[in-house]
Amino acid sequence: MDFNIFLNDCIKNCVRIQEKTFNKGEIITTYIEKRNMVYILESGEADLIRYDFNGNKTIIKHLSKNDIFGETFYPAKTNNELFVLAKKKCHVIFFKYDIILSKCKTNCKFHNELRENINNLILREIIEQNTRIEVLTQKTIRDKLLSYFNILSAQGLRRQFTIPFTLTDLADFLSVDRSAMTRELSNLKKEGFIMQNGNSIKLLIN
Predict the structure, then answer these.
(1) Which of 162, 148, 173 is nearest to 57 (CA)?
(2) Which residues have CB under 8 Å from 74's CB, separation 6+?
(3) How confident is the model over 78-102, as pLDDT tens digits?
(4) Residue 158 CB: number of other CB atoms within 10 A?
(5) Phi, psi angle pair for 131, to nearest 5°
(6) Taking a C-beta distance cutoff of 8 angstroms, is the pair 195, 204 a contact?
(7) For residue 42, what is the enclosing H or E element?
(8) Euclidean distance between CA atoms 107 and 122, whole angstroms
(9) Residue 125: beta bridge partners?
(10) Which of 60, 64, 180, 182 is least surrounded by CB atoms within 10 angstroms?
């Protein structure tokens, strides 16, 4: 079944699923423990952002069409502030995680299909979290950049791809100093590892 058709059918037929549109720059949600909300980004782009106690910013994840998010998948057990910020106009559907576990009173087929489809979304979320861990555990800025570039290349099955971040946001995503990262990008270009034109990157060496 086409996932977009499935989402539209769920919105129309299951009263426990809500939807809302957010403009660029608006906060879609903050992560509050025990609220147990699940969000699916039907269209647009957003970032999951964390500020620690000292005000340091980290981009935990870049969200795009059909990505799933919510405090259910990233419980806020520290003093860190986490929120999802719309980077473009976003249309979001959301519901309490509890409805997946409980039976719909009207026994609507779309509620039942949601329970079947949510497993695939959760599996993809786990894979993406593991991918981020792989990038962040690289020891040098160069290795983090090349690891991330190789992941983007593999996802698109192309050597050329577009980074979904500004350079400042990319540094926040990789948890590195922006100036040091910019120098490393320059070195990678000079040494023939990559070609760069704005946010467009082409890998020249595996």
Answers:
(1) 173
(2) 31, 48, 60, 82
(3) 556 789 999 999 999 998 887 776 6
(4) 11
(5) -65, -45
(6) yes
(7) strand 37-43
(8) 23
(9) none
(10) 180
In this model, does residue 55 exceed pLDDT 70?
yes
Tokens of 104: 């719909």
* pLDDT at residue 172 tops 90: yes
C-alpha closest to that of 175 among 25, 50, 47: 50
Would you place residue 117 in the very low, low, confident or very high pLDDT band (cuts 50, 70, 90)? Answer: confident
Contact (Cβ atoms closer than 8 angstroms) between residue 33 and residue 77: yes
Q: Please state the pTM of the whole predicted model.
A: 0.82
For residue 75, give the nearest of 95, 53, 60 by alpha carbon: 60
Report the b/e string of 10-29 with b at 16+ CB within 10 A. Answer: beeebebbeeeebeeeeebb
**Distance (Å, whole) CA 43 – CA 86:** 11
For 53, which DSSP code?
Answer: T
- Among the listed residues 71, 11, 84, the one whose alpha carbon sits nearest the alpha carbon of residue 42: 11
